[in-house]
Amino acid sequence: MKIAGVQMDVSLGQVDANLEKMAAFLRRTTRDGAVLTVFPECSATGYCFNDLAEAQSVASTVPGPVTDVMARACKAVESFAVFGMVEADGERVFNSAVLVGPAGVVGCYRKIHLPFLGLDQLSTPGDRPFAVYDAGGLRVGMNICYDAAFPEASRSLALLGADVIVLPTNWPPGSECTAACCINARALENGVYYLAVNRVGTERGFRFIGQSRACDPWGNSLATASGTDEEVLYVDVDVARARNKHYVRVPGQHEIDRFADRRPEMYTSLTKPHGLKHPARK
Asked: Fewer Cβ within 10 Å of end Cβ, the chain: N or C?
């Protein structure tokens, strides 16, 4: 199965223009054989909002008008897409990634780990457990941006059976090591394909660093984008390879299984609070 990542610029608050641009890219990637196309974090809406009211002005429910547009685009080409948006839920907003296909919304992930930046200063932390969704036979797990810094996020999706973890992201300067190292590590430690799709351009003084990256289940880089240009990355996904966690390197002498070799009983400290708080979130 071929999947695609679209590293693109986004126009803050210009939802219709962003959706039109995404639909055009989707037509292109599907013509090139992709069954799933992934767009950046907040690709439908932009990210650097000044206040909650501004974010609410472009927020939409899921399902809703924004996902309806993308669902029609997916139906026209018979493929799937993951994209970022501001999700409305009453007075609350969430930084969400949505998986949409020809029949409509397949799944929605609300960002759990929130940095003190942009929309994430205004949104509510994700309140739903991690989940894996089927996209035409491909098992897809979704994280967003800062989630990549928390190995528990991708491990949860891998244990749920993900073949590929997708990471719509808005990496600013300071995230270069995440782009260069963390994506490979998350793929390797979970034995999954990992596709991180960043944006380019600037918004209200924030520059985004591009460097979208795709990795295979052994942590090898398959494709990497530049730091400045709109680009499309393509990756061939072998689901059998992603589902095989037992690696035989030397029969009878060197075998590993990163799931069977886990020792959860020794990880109890992971569930204990550390007692520290972000200074801006007392």
From this structure: C
Please give the average per-residue pLDDT across 129-146, as a whole number: 98
Assess whether 111 carries a catalytic annotation: yes
Q: Please give the Cα distance from 222 to 214 (Å, whole number).
A: 5
Catalytic status, residue 231: no
By CB neighbour count within 10 A (0-12 exposed, 13-18 middle, 19+ buried), where does 229 fall?
A: exposed
pTM score of the predicted model: 0.95
Q: Tell me the fold of 2-281.
A: Nitrilase/N-carbamoyl-D-aminoacid amidohydrolase (3.60.110)
Q: Is 265 exposed, middle or buried (0-12, 13-18, 19+ CB in 10 A)?
A: exposed
Q: Which is catalytic among the residues 145, 182, 203, 215?
A: 145
Annotated catalytic residue 41: yes
Q: What is the pLDDT of residue 249?
A: 87
Q: For the chain, state the CA radius of gyration.
A: 18
How high is the pLDDT of residue 272?
81
Q: Which of 41, 74, 108, 182 is catalytic?
A: 41
State how beta strands 221-224 and 80-89 pair.
unpaired
Active-site hit among 21, 48, 111, 182: 111
